[in-house]
């Protein structure tokens, strides 16, 4: 049923004229992979320029029962953009149509009166942020990929980021959307109101659904007033325990920083491989804070944060603080962004996870993950948005060495089990995609799966939307 | 099918022993009304003490196709707790079983490490807030009813409140829940993690579903660090236009107050009927701000707010500000809380709405509502959470006078239409319930209704949960 026929090709070429429909193997290759490095070959790639085309495609695809795989910049690290359904084993046939939303990349409206932005799904998150900031407005969600990922992808995965601690995740900023659904129905739900409780919450149901319900064609986002100033502060600690205690002290002082990033001992070691670190050798864990607010308030807030951190005798003194102004702060965040490139100096291959635990389980989780690394003789980096209990785990390994890939996979499984036994979740930000799908029955109950299947069926009765992903 | 038989009575009495099952007319009367003042007579009221009883009830009710109406303190103003299904016309038969969650009122856990609270649905919101605040924690959602309404009801309606501007609505604080579903299935979804993107978002789907999908038996809520201090400030303006301009100025300065309440001219007049107002006669609109944060930051923030407000020559000078400390601030908020009692000095009857418009449509909406009042010769109070575009509308009238009720209803309809034509929503906080159900097809599209019906069916295939409500 998913083999490309001439009829299919003709339909697609008519609907997506002038090079907006791709069939050549080298083109299909490009659109078959995402940042998970998994790949599969689709039967075609289409690049719609307007919502109507997507609706017509989804009408046809439902009738023909052709799988449809939406995609934008494909920065997804769990394979959610890969055009493959692992449940269809034994087939090497190309498995469906990839829909790239990259030609739908207009910022339709930025309203300083309504505090909303209306965008097409292919808009790069950073572009939106820069545009709204020029008008004194603020779109807080800041996934690490924001320079290259799109709003459509951010909404499809309910992306988090560093500022989620104070400002919440993408879900909190989606006010409305237009989406094409299988069968060609157009869903318009929510709107420009900051509050709305009429009917079931379809807006937040679509958010984080990983392309399994429909394809968003327009998204209305909530904006905030742009904080006048920001300040950043990096503090070093003698160990993970001391760093976690410092987090507690900050919260206990009634402070909720805009960002609170953690770097564990293995991560600091890795950063030192790339560049002489600015911290003394006794620093074995670090916290990177960002505060924001009006200028006067921010000064007081920064003094308060410094005094809270310095009040703890167990703390290595605060070693560096950058004042207000993005330029002054940049060197600190450059360190944080250096983790990914530095990680490959430890080993050439990586299994990357973004487990999340209840905040109080942070230290036990970090300790357990480090022990798992030692047990398998692998460097496992831990860092990330600890204010949310969200730990990025990089299992570094060299898969060219015999037995090492197996050890890395075993370590991943152990970490998943540890996290779930602590009341944690397999993913705080990345989603399930293909790579975590084998584990979700350890987290989701049969009742949850049954309800999700029922919901899916009311959006997508033939199961054509991104099949085999997520749930 | 919903007539009480002896068999029904025996089943219910066995499952809810020792006075936890009520059949007497005078008891049924009490549990048949909510704050909408609508009422209906159920065939029985049950008061479960544990989740298992609710699951068994919902198994039985599904088999017997008996409607089930969940309820806690029934502060709902749109009839969502009234045991009636208006689609079943012509029957005077009692229509189902009311489930009161008031005996399930335990705070199960407050964790200063995880920053979560786990509660049963019958816990009063204020009780939870006071308990968490004693431990330096903060549960921001503060619907006006918080002294008497429950967490279960707050989650079922996705309650808002004054602090929603900075902190978001109830949805943003629900991390996990346990719920009994029709057929007796138990749903446990989400948990204690502050971030979680595994599977479709059932937690937020249940939030705001007005009791139409199942009955929550346990709720896990996100907590924040308690801000060290708060300050409040009341500013008077010569008119609505000047007040709305002041809101713009505050946002433009990069400030996001914890609360920003508006009181229109008719509301100020009404307050003056009850008590000599503290503002001069030329004040025709007022804004009430609350700021919060660490003490030092708050002082700077307050100075900044005062300077922003005073910088506008059109503004009547700021006339009263209360410093940090709840006691000092209380008189200002006492004025805000006085609106409801004062309203009845204008007229004995009220139609109360909570429409919401895109923030930029605030002034046109307020102006239109005032014109509607003048046209019908009715006093219409406008006040509320204008930072969110959420306007509380009280259509005051005396229904004992000939033709007046009809005028009030006509005014309501006109306001609904005005709001929808501005891209607004019929409800920002209260929900749809019975009273707004006749209007929802003006807001929701057939595709949305179809999807909601499909979702409903996967939770509640026989349609026994709070039938006739919401969507």
TrEMBL record, chains A, B:
Its Gene Ontology molecular function terms?
D-lactate dehydrogenase (cytochrome) activity; FAD binding
Q: Do you know which Gene3D superfamilies this protein is assigned to?
A: 3.30.465.10, 3.30.70.2740, Vanillyl-alcohol Oxidase, Chain A, domain 4 (1.10.45.10)
Sorted UniProt keywords: FAD, Flavoprotein, Oxidoreductase
The EC number on file is: 1.1.2.4
Start and end residues of each FAD-binding PCMH-type domain: 38-226
| Entries under Pfam families matching the protein | FAD-oxidase_C, FAD_binding_4
Q: Which cofactor does it need?
A: FAD
InterPro entries linked: FAD-bd_oxidored_4_C, FAD-bd_PCMH, FAD-bd_PCMH-like_sf, FAD-bd_PCMH_sub2, FAD-linked_Oxase-like_C, FAD-linked_OxidoTrans_Type4, Oxid_FAD_bind_N, Vanillyl_alc_oxidase_C-sub2
- Can you tell me which residues the record assigns to a coiled coil? none
Which class of enzymes does this protein belong to?
oxidoreductase
- Source taxon at top rank: Bacteria
Q: Which family does it belong to?
A: Belongs to the FAD-binding oxidoreductase/transferase type 4 family.
Name the PANTHER family on file: D-LACTATE DEHYDROGENASE, GLYCOLATE OXIDASE SUBUNIT GLCD
Recorded protein name is D-lactate dehydrogenase (Cytochrome)
């Amino acid at each position: 049923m998913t083999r490309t026929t001439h009829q299919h090709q003709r339909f697609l070429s008519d609907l997506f004229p002038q090079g907006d429909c791709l069939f050549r193997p080298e083109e299909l290759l490009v659109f078959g992979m995402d940042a998970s490095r998994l790949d599969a070959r689709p039967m075609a790639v289409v690049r719609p320029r307007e919502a109507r085309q997507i609706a017509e495609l989804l009408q046809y695809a439902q009738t023909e029962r052709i799988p449809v795989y939406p995609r934008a910049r494909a920065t997804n690290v769990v394979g959610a953009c890969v055009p493959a359904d692992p449940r269809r084993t034994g087939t090497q046939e190309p498995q469906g149509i990839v829909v790239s939303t990259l030609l739908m990349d207009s910022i339709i409206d930025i309203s300083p009166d309504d505090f909303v932005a209306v965008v097409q799904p292919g808009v790069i998150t950073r572009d939106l942020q820069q545009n709204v900031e020029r008008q004194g407005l603020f779109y807080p969600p800041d996934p690490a990929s924001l320079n290259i990922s799109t709003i459509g992808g951010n909404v499809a995965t309910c992306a988090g980021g560093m500022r989620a601690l104070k400002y919440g995740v993408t879900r909190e900023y989606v006010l409305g959307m237009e989406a094409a659904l299988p069968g060609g129905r157009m869903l318009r739900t929510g709107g420009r109101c900051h509050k709305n409780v009429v009917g079931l919450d379809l807006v937040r149901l679509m958010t984080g659904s990983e392309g399994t319900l429909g394809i968003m064609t327009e998204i209305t986002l909530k904006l905030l007033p742009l904080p006048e100033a920001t300040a950043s502060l990096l503090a070093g600690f003698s160990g993970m325990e001391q760093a976690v205690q410092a987090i507690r002290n900050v919260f206990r002082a009634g402070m909720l920083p805009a960002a609170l990033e953690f770097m564990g001992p293995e991560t600091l070691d890795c950063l030192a491989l790339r560049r002489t670190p600015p911290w003394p050798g006794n620093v074995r864990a670090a916290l990177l804070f960002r505060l924001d607010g009006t200028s006067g308030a921010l000064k007081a807030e920064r003094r308060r944060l410094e005094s809270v951190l310095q009040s703890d005798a167990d703390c290595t003194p605060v070693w560096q603080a950058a004042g207000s102004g993005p330029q002054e702060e940049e060197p600190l965040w450059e360190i944080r962004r250096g983790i990914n490139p530095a990680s490959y100096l430890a080993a050439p291959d990586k299994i990357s996870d973004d487990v999340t635990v209840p905040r109080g389980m942070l230290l036990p989780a970090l300790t357990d993950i480090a022990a798992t690394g030692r047990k398998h003789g692998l460097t496992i980096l831990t860092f990330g948005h600890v204010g949310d209990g969200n730990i990025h785990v990089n299992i570094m390994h060299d898969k060219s060495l015999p037995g090492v890939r197996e050890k890395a996979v075993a370590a991943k499984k152990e970490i998943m089990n540890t996290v779930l036994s602590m009341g944690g979740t397999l993913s705080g930000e990345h989603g399930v995609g293909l790579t975590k799908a084998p584990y979700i029955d350890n987290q989701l109950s049969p009742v949850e799966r049954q309800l999700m299947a029922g919901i899916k069926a009311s959006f997508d009765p033939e199961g054509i939307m991104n099949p085999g992903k997520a749930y």
